[in-house]
Amino acid sequence: MQATASHRGQFSSRLGFIIAAAGCAVGVGNIWSFPTQTAQNGGAAFVLVYLCFSFILAYPTLVAELTIGRYSQSNSVTAMTQLDSRGWGRKLGWVTSIMGLVTLTLIYSFYSIVGGWFVGFSLAPIFEISGFHEVANWLTDFNFHSTVLATVIFMALTTLIVTGGVKNGIERWCNRLMPALFIILSVLIVFALTRPGGMEGLKVYLIPDFSKLFNQQLLISALGQSFFSMSLGVGCMMVYGSYLNKKANLPLTAFQVAVVDSSVAFLAGMLIIPCMYAAMQQGIEIYSTDGQLHSADTLVFNVLPTLFNQLGILGQLVAMAFFILLVIAALTSSISLIEPTVACLVEKVSFRRHRASWCISVFSACLSIVIIYHIETLLGLAVKVATQYLQPLLCFMIAIYGSWVMRQNRLLKELSQGFPEIQKSLFWKIWPWYIRTICPGLILILFLSNL
Question: Entry's Pfam families (predicted)?
Answer without folding.
Answer: SNF
